[in-house]
Amino acid sequence: MTNPVDAAAVELERDAVVVGAGFAGLYALHVLRDRVGLSVQAIDQAGGVGGVWYWNRYPGARCDIESCNYSYSFSAELQQEWQWSERFAGQPEILRYLEHVADRFDLRRDIRLGTRITSATWDSGRARWVVTTDAGDRVIARYLISGAGTLSAAKEPAFDGLDSFEGQVYSTARWPHDGVDFTGKRVAVIGTGASGIQVIPHIAAQAAHLTVFQRTANYATPIHNGPMDPEFTRLIKAGYPGLRGRSRDNFGGLPYDLQAPSALAVTQDERRRVYQERWDQGGFRLSLDSYADVFFDATANATAAEFIRDKIRERVTDPATAELLCPTDHAYGTKRPPLETGYYEAYNRETVDLVDLRACPIERITATGIRTTGVQGADHPLDAIVLALGFDALTGPLLRMGIQGRDGLSLRSHWSQGPRTYLGLMVHGFPNLFTITGPQSPSVFYNHPLAVEDHVDWLAGCLSHQRARGIDSVEPSAEAEHRWGEHTDEVASGLLLPHTDSWYTGSNVPGKPRALLAYFGGAPAYRRICADVAERGYQGLLFDGVPAADGPGATV
Ligand code: N01
After folding, report:
1. Which site in 65, 113, 232, 316 is 20 to 30 Å from 494, CA atoms measured?
2. HSE (CB half, 13 Å, CA atoms) of 522?
3. How many Cβ atoms sit within 10 Å of the Cβ of residue 318?
4. pLDDT tens, 327-341?
């Protein structure tokens, strides 16, 4: 079979192509180039480094993990030098941090920005990836390493008539660099996930009128952001090694250690005391550091859900609006819990309305606004529409790259029923492809910078091992991949989460197969598995088509 890429002019040859220049791409470039000694070309569609923090510039965009935790741990010097100004840094500060990392580790010279990968094809004859870009470049590389991100492929809007709207349309995931002034404008926000919940209070404070179109109410809890106290900063910096160690020993990669086993094993008073304390602490304390059975026992979960609904009712003045904002159709934490500042109070403004899309769905977008149908169908005249519709999570960024593996197998067809991977990091039939924080790894359930570092460090070990033995290609066996899929399903089987429609299961994107997109066994278990695989000589992998070690591959 003739490989279509053979005839093409080769412009660049590298050991590795790294996709993306966000947290994952920057660290992968640093480690592979400066520690493993590979020649690396990083490629990013954005005009600057930063990944999601480059694109998501909407007002209110803010990290919802404390920045002292949501940051790289690999360089003690970087940790000591960098000063976070707020407990939960805003998007501009996180972007400055990643720009600083790119400069400090001299990464920019190997990053090609403003360039989108249009295809990546495995050439079996040469044991190389052939990567093409929209700039017409081709890069030939032994390894293709995706740091394309988990929540980076924005969901396409599918509203009839959107193109006919004569006002402005914005997406939270692609916000204009110069900002947007909504003063005097009639604005709509569609979507009440984490992005919508962050942007709504800001638009509400500025616009002449805001209409929020809500399909599913969410359990938002306070972030409790504030300036970093110098003494707190000093303590964090003095204790960083221990802090990072505690984080890596925690299910979600956060230095939390207050979680008790069961909400049902304590009295109602004690439970509410704990929920109130975690509510006051802010961040993810309430969801991740209260009671473990909130994630798998519907009765335990209902206690936390009712606590949050009571808070919403206290904060929203109009009882009918409060009830619409109270989620009742899914368990707490089965959609990613958003964190907020002043979200519920925004609905107490006379200039803010809430439309329940379950009762009156959007019929179409007209030249002048949004038309809803149903019992209270109406025309909502608008100057601007803000789409906060979410992402084609985890698989979307990889599938949009046009990846073709051995024998012309496309990743899209290999994953037609959902992702199939080994450790969420490699795919059978796709030699030398590595997916940092890929589907079926802890990824979105693991503090992202630490998840990235774990994957890249493991990968560096694996590549060094291969290179020392003159091995050209590595991929998982079909059996190892199959067993990992079974294990991923098994660890999630007791959880409430798979039963809710959300981006965790792919059910937010029409036509996407419903499948678990992350590994829910927790970071410590996952880290142990990856370490075991390496210690056993990379069990489950094929090196140049030959099993790397005896045994079928990782399970627990
Ligand atoms: O996306 P989402 P997001 N008609 O999918 C609605 C991370 N993040 O961008 O729930 C009407 O959560 C949809 O309704 P429903 C974080 O991990 C992090 O807000 O499908 N509505 C939902 O309300 C987060 O979880 C941070 O019924 C439609 C909303 O749009 C993830 O990104 C900040 C619709 C989408 O919510 C995604 O959050 C922001 C339609 N056709 C995001 N389609 C920080 O850490 C969708 N919706 C700072």
Report:
1. 65
2. 13
3. 12
4. 999 999 999 999 999
Among residues 193, 217, 220, 198, the alpha carbon closest in space to that of 330 is found at: 217
Burial class (CB in 10 A: 0-12, 13-18, 19+), 266: middle
Q: Are the CB atoms for 522 and 252 separated by under 8 Å?
A: yes
pLDDT digit string, tens, across residues 417-446: 999 999 999 999 999 999 999 999 999 999
- Percent of the chain beyond pLDDT 90? 96
In the reported structure, the alpha carbon of residue 391 is separated from the centroid of ligand 1 by a whole-number distance in angstroms of 7
Give the pLDDT confidence of 442-478 residue by residue, as tens digits: 999 999 999 999 999 999 999 999 999 999 999 999 9
438 pocket-lining for ligand 1 (C-beta < 6 Å): no
Q: What is the pLDDT at residue 375?
A: 80
Distances (CA, A) of 486 to 449, 516, 539, 552: 27, 11, 17, 13
| Distance from Cα 505 to the centre of ligand 1, integer Å | 13
Amino acid at 197: I
CA atoms within 13 Å, Cβ hemisphere of 52: 23
Give me the domains of the chain, ranges plus CATH numbers: 11-153+393-547 (3.50.50.60), 162-227+249-387 (3.50.50.60)
Which of 178, 51, 100, 59 is closest to 452 using CA atoms?
Answer: 51
Q: How far is the CA of 95 from the centre of ligand 1 (A)?
A: 21
Decide: 64 and 223 in contact? Cβ < 8 Å: yes
For ligand 1, the distance from its centroid to the CA atom of residue 152, given in whole angstroms, is 12
The pLDDT value recorded for residue 478 is: 97
Asked if 40 and 153 count as a contact pair (C-beta separation under 8 A), the reply is no
CA dist 430 and 401 (Å) reads 14
Calculate the alpha carbon distances from 346 to 188, 353, 466 in Å: 14, 9, 56
Backbone dihedral angles phi then psi of residue 17, each to the nearest 5 degrees: -105, 130
Torsion, CA 473, CA 479, CA 482, CA 484, rounded to 10: -70
CA-CA-CA-CA dihedral for 127, 130, 131, 135, to nearest 10: 160
How far is residue 66's CA from residue 225's CA, in Å, rounded to a whole number? 9
Pair of tokens at residue 6: 């053979």
pTM to 2 decimal places: 0.96
Task: Determine whether the shortest distance from the Cβ of 90 to ligand 1 is under 6 A.
Answer: no
Helices and strands, number each (H, E), in the chain? 17, 21
Tell me whether strands 128-133 and 168-171 are parallel, antiparallel or unpaired. unpaired
DSSP letters spanning 365-432: E-SSEEEE-STT--EEE-SEEEE---B--THHHHHTT-EE-GGG-BHHHHTBTB---BTTTB-TT-TT
